[in-house]
């Protein structure tokens, strides 16, 4: 199992290096070798500056969470993305610079985190995936504590429990699809 994962990682790394070289050569042909080297140095310097500013902020957020004894949550993810983004910006290559910049800027960091979350969850075995939350008009007002309406309680909340079975169409009492 780990052999196939290692092969995939090497393949992806090789393709990424090849793509970086192609983009580097294309940029060098477009603006010249000297300007390309200068742009590479400038993006590395920008990476250092952004890493210092955003890294300091991320570490301060983590310290504040630790001081108040709250779970680090998103702050821990931000610190990891800032570190990865700074590393990508400092390495030569324009594709890595673009991805690194997306990781370093606060406005785009949530987009990167969402994409990584979806990627990781899609790769997890079904048994390890978190439960699926479904919101609808009927269940929008249900509190997270699991309060369920009982007969005669006067509550307008309704919880419908069930499970999803892959490969089978779910039908309502009339034989039609559930809406």
UniProtKB/TrEMBL annotation:
Keyword Transmembrane listed: yes
Cellular component per GO, a single term: membrane
UniProt cross-references to Pfam families, sorted A to Z: FxsA
Top-level division of the source organism's lineage: Bacteria
Stored InterPro entries: FxsA
Keywords: Membrane, Transmembrane, Transmembrane helix
Entry's transmembrane regions: 9-27, 33-52, 73-95
Membrane found in the keyword field: yes
NCBIfam families the record matches: PRK11463.1-2
Identification of the protein by name: UPF0716 protein FxsA
Organism, as annotated: Blastococcus mobilis
């Amino acid at each position: 199992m780990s052999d196939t994962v290692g092969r995939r990682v090497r393949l992806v790394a090789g393709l990424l290096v090849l793509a970086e070289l192609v983009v580097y050569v294309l940029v060098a042909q477009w603006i010249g070798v000297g300007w390309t080297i200068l742009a590479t140095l400038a993006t590395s310097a920008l990476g250092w500056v952004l890493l210092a500013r955003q890294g300091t902020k991320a570490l301060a957020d983590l310290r504040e969470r630790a001081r108040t004894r709250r779970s680090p949550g998103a702050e821990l993810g931000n610190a990891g993305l800032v570190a990865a983004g700074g590393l990508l910006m400092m390495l030569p290559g324009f594709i890595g610079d673009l991805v690194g910049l997306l990781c370093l800027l606060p406005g785009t960091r949530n987009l990167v985190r969402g994409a990584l979350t979806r990627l990781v969850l899609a790769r997890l075995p079904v048994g390890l995936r978190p439960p699926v939350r479904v919101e609808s008009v009927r269940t929008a007002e249900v509190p997270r504590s699991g309060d369920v309406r009982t007969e005669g309680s006067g509550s307008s909340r309704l919880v419908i429990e069930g499970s999803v079975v892959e490969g089978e169409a779910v039908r309502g009492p009339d034989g039609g699809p559930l809406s």
